[in-house]
Amino acid sequence: MTSIDNDPVFTSLCNEKTLQSQKEGFFNEFYHSVAENFTGKSARWLTEVYQKVTTDAGRLRLIYEDPVVAYDVQGTLEHVEPVFRGKDAKFSWQRREQALKLLGENKLQQALIMACQAVMRAPCQGVDRYIDKGLTLALALWTRAEVFIRLLDGKRALQDLQLASKCGLPVKQNADYYARVAKCYALMDEMGRAEVATKLFHQLSGHNDYALTRLKDDMEDLRVLKQETPSVEVARTLPKLAGEGESTEIVGASTKIKLAGSKEDPRGRYVVAAADLGPGEAILTEQAYAACLYPKYFGTHCNACFSRLVAPVACPDCCGVAFCSVACRDKACATYHRFECQYLDLMIGSGMSILCHVALRIVTQAGTPQKVIAEGKMLRDTFCAHTEHRDPEDHFKRTLMTAFLLRCLQKAEFFGQRTTEAPEPNEQELQVGAVLLSALQSLQFNAHEVYETRITGEHRFDTAKVQYIGVGIYRGASMFNHECYPGVTRSFLGTAMILHTSRPIPAGALVPENYGPHFLRQPKPTRQRNLRSRYWFKCDCRACIEDWQQMDKLPAKPRLRCTTPDCGNALSYPNKPSQRTVKCNKCKKQINLEANVKMLEASDQLCTTGAEMMADERVDEAIELLKKGITLFAQVAVPPHKTAHVAEESLRSCFADKGNANRY
């Protein structure tokens, strides 16, 4: 990959998209109000003043101090105030009543939706004593627990009951509470604990034998229904890394890959194979350094781990985000969310891109300014920013966005209680701002979109569709260079990225990732334009040099490898049996391609059978057959070849099915 001059117009559009995703957001107005100051007599301010400051911290300081822009910058930032959707006890009560009505009509899924809304909007215990005597949240959880019992989900029902107890629900003399607990344990097939809860119910009900008999009958009915209902939840775990443990130089990586190159190398640092790699090997399982959901998924996925929400747990103060568990909520509220909570709606309203949110998350999850500053050097060393090539106007916009985010941090008391309300940063705040500004530049080139596989019908592959739900930054994965014909396939489990090899890669060879433009889906001119303008390099991979065709235009047969050891030449496929002995124009030997033809046919058959296993939803068998077919192809032929590439894409689908996959 070599750096080149970019298409200025398209590059500007790409750059703007990575900073501001909504034109109607108020940040656009903020920028134009400030930019008006360096037109006319001050038209050269950007190039003759701003651009001559060589550090991010220096440029950030400049916009607060230089009289050309300082008045409008500080004047706007002084108006930053909390904007968030708070709790509403009355709304929660209304949704709870609707849930109970739907429950009586046996409309369980609709009842669950209402009960979840009741939980999300309910204030904490004692906040609003005029409604439910301050127990709105506890009663919302109590109602949702009953819905889950009816849905045969004992585990989630029990979690809600326990949480309701912590939120003030009276349980010591509450026979109904222990009746529900007993049902939960019965559904979980924990009969010992169910028996203890049953005895407590019997005791608290005044030893009502009739009520006890009814409870035991209900528990047995629930157990029978549970046994007759197939479980749809599948426990998913990260795969074991190939090789001998984890690399010491690449975060989350296998010892079968290593770093090559240097910062001075035109290709930078990049990943190569430390040993021969076959298809389907797990070479990276890396937790995100920082990750953020797209706002449209705030109500459907956990804000912390990206799990699909079933029983959402709310932030104690806002209704803007949800969590899959108390553990995720408590972790978030102890770190990043306590600084983002009251300003998240404001930031979304600014029109800022999700990359801006990830940059902020890098700061807020650190918890303290000191830790941000300490990690700043590591972040700059790991993630390229290409500051020296950035247009001064684009850099100024990012500096202005940094000032806005820094003001949100000031107001959220990330730096503690300040002695002044003025937005101008002190030295510590300036250093944190410099980390933010660096991240706003480097994330353009290093962030990865996190996806899930959405299954909308009965068949897990025929109706599967990739849906991007958020963005993450990964220290190890950022080391992989791009090729339009990748050597790895990317999937996710929560926010963790998983890279499997998709084809054989010999020791010492580049292990390429794909940044989006794939030769199967985009023609060369489109790929080159996108890569130049979005990532600022000209791709010179094999697919570009040889101008491989897209999927629907690939030749029916591939070129075959010369059988002479170390020759490496590729020979045209013999269309007739009489043409299977040819002279290689490289090693000058007569080559019999009969064996290669038969092995290619065997490879195609393995790939076809693998596809049939996918049709039968026998995923593990499909993976093994596809791996064998791809391996065999690489031994006797060279890409491009439609059957082999379809098999590589099928392998990606199989691994994605083992990650974030949800039925809708």
The main β sheet shows up as: 4 strands, mixed
CATH first level of the domain at 89-228: Mainly Alpha
The structural class is: alpha+beta
Low-confidence stretches: none
Number of helices: 24
How much of the sequence lies in strands comes to 5-15%
Describe the structure.
The mean pLDDT is 94. Among the domains are: 89-228, Serine Threonine Protein Phosphatase 5, Tetratricopeptide repeat; 237-288 and 474-548, SET domain (Beta-clip-like); 552-663, no CATH class. Strands 4-8-7-16 form a four-stranded mixed β-sheet. It has a three-stranded antiparallel β-sheet with strand order 3-10-9, with helices on one face. Strands 12-11-15 form a three-stranded antiparallel β-sheet. The protein has 664 residues and is an alpha+beta fold. Helices cover 46% and strands 11% of the residues.
